Amino acid sequence: MKNSFVNYLYKKGFVHKKDNIIYAPDAFKINSIIQWCIKEKDPKKLKKYAYLIGDYFSGSIDISVENDKLIISDPRGE
Description:
Blueprint: H1 2-12, E1 16-18, E2 21-23, H2 27-39, H3 43-58, E3 62-66, E4 69-73
Antiparallel strand pairs: 1-2, 3-4
C-alpha cells in the first residue's frame, strides 16, 4: 500500500528525484491530510474526503488542516 502511494506521488509530480536528492515540497501537507483522514470513523465522510484529496492532486482545490478541520480553498484565490 505504502509503495503504491509513493509511486502515485511520483507519477503526479508531488515527489521527484534529482542528483540523489528527493524533493517532496507538499509531503508534509499530504501527510497531515492523510493522518487527519485516518482519524475519521464514518466511511461515508471518509469517501467524500478521498474525492477531495483526488481534487487536490488534480490541482482543482487546495486543502489545509487547521484546528483539526479540513479547509478547502480555490488554489487560484477565487
